[in-house]
Design goal:
The protein has 432 residues and is of the alpha/beta class. It folds into two domains: 190 residues, Rossmann fold (3-Layer(aba) Sandwich); 162 residues, Rossmann fold (3-Layer(aba) Sandwich), CATH 3.40.50. The protein is 33% helix and 16% strand. It has 15 helices and 18 strands. Helix 1 crosses helix 15 and helix 7 packs across helix 13.
Length: 432
């Protein structure tokens, strides 16, 4: 497959043309819009129970006809006279097989919360995915070709949404040709500040395409104020703060089983995570301490040489790769300390997850960690020696936080609050 961008001078619209030799080009042909008086699920909330059999959904992921149960409703205010909106969430790339980094988990959890607070919300997912089901989930063709063609698919046109939310990946450029504004959540300034560590496709999608399309997004948000300020300067447009929360359901965690001299580090194997410091820490810790690492292989020199690096530390380090939520929760609950020596982060969801479960935390002394780490976190300079880091880790592990401190910290991170804030922004924009 070949891909290249075309920038229309008159419209200022980035078009991404993908050509597959076997199937031909994906054409950006205009489609007639459905009548504006036909909408999905616009009945008042009080009537949803009576009409639940007619709710938009595709509960059988992978169905050959995921739109066969789509039913249209008339637009209108709810029973209290408040504006209701039909929201579509693009999860096509976020639900591709074997994809479970922080941004994918963020996107899936956000949709689940939005579905509870705004029943008109639907999600488009990769039909090969098994990570999301239930009401209002529509399976479509996946991969980058499916992502690109989504706004021109019959399934998308049938929904006729008022807003398209892209909480993980940039929107398809074709979405900018439609009438529904795009609400984009960008998690990190990494593509601009450390983009040289990304592969070519990552830089093209997250840096060049994103920057070209950002001025045409209806709204741009970031999980933290720190990142919102940075992205606003980079993209030359306002960027709001929307918040973040744990990516997995912490209520499913098993009972803690600490005291086994275990350290846990979580994150994709890529240069920004600074895993060299973690591997050196493993060697500096006395027996029987071991380091458990969870994260898929990513990019950059460390990913390319990861196997040989692990082989040098195999007695002290265990790599779990892409772990299931249940496995990750078990590893959190059997660890004595969470460690993150990242060079940079957009938020660091694993740190918040670990802290919300009551783990002692040792992390690099970078600005984002100062903002999101718990009060009991211990901060280590990036220049710290492995021996000194090992001493801090052992000290932290010996002084766990109180249950009261953990409960207070965890309360600050809520998917429901994030969903309500996003829905509020969409309604405010719609009402203008």
């Amino acid at each position: 497959m070949q891909a290249w961008p075309l920038l229309s001078g008159r419209a200022g619209v980035l078009l991404l043309c993908s050509i597959d030799e076997s199937n031909g080009p994906v054409q950006a042909r205009p489609h007639p819009a459905p009548p504006r008086n036909q909408r999905i699920l616009r009945q008042p909330v009080s009537t949803l129970e009576a009409d639940r059999q007619e709710m938009l959904h595709c509960s059988a992921i992978g169905s050959n006809s995921c739109t066969e149960r789509v039913h249209l409703r008339k637009a209108g205010p709810d029973i209290a006279g408040k504006l209701t909106v039909a929201i579509a969430v693009d999860l096509v790339l976020a639900t591709r097989p074997n994809a479970s980094t922080g941004i994918e988990r963020y996107a899936i959890n956000l949709f689940k919360a939005m579905r509870e607070h705004a029943p008109d919300t639907v999600a488009f997912v990769d039909r090969r995915s098994t990570v999301l089901d239930g009401p209002n989930v529509i399976a479509v063709d996946g991969g980058f070709r499916g992502w690109l063609a989504l706004p021109r698919s019959q399934a998308f046109r049938d929904v006729d949404c008022d807003a398209l939310v892209c909480p993980a990946f940039p929107s398809s450029p074709l979405a900018l040709l439609g009438k529904a504004p795009v609400f984009r959540i960008i998690h990190d300034d990494f593509p601009w500040t450390r983009g040289e560590a990304m592969n070519l496709r990552g830089r093209f999608l997250f840096k060049h395409c994103e920057a070209a399309m950002a001025r045409r997004y209806g709204d741009v948000m970031a999980p933290t104020t720190l990142m919102a300020d940075s992205l606003s300067a980079i993209l030359h447009r306002p960027v709001g703060t929307i918040g973040n929360a744990p990516g997995i359901d912490l209520s499913l965690a098993p009972a803690p089983d600490r005291g086994q001299a275990q350290i846990i580090a979580v994150g994709t194997i890529e240069p920004r995570k600074n895993y060299d410091a973690v591997l050196d820490l493993a060697e500096a810790l006395p027996a029987p301490w071991r380091v458990q690492i969870v994260g898929r292989r990513g990019w950059g020199p460390i990913a390319e040489t990861w196997d040989s690096r692990l082989a040098r530390h195999e007695a002290r380090v265990e790599w779990h790769g892409h772990a299931s939520d249940a496995a990750l929760l078990g590893l959190y609950q059997s660890a004595d300390c969470f460690v993150s020596m990242s060079l940079a982060e957009g938020f660091n969801m694993p740190l918040v997850e670990a802290a919300s479960l009551g783990l002692p935390v040792v992390c690099s002394d970078i600005e984002i960690h100062r903002r999101v780490a718990p009060p009991w976190a211990r901060f280590a300079p990036l220049s710290i020696s492995a021996a000194d880091l090992a001493a801090i880790v052992r000290e932290a592990a010996a002084t766990p936080p109180s249950a009261q401190d953990v409960a207070h910290y965890a309360h600050a991170f809520s998917w429901g609050g994030i969903a309500q804030a996003l829905i509020g922004r969409i309604k405010a924009a719609r009402a203008k």
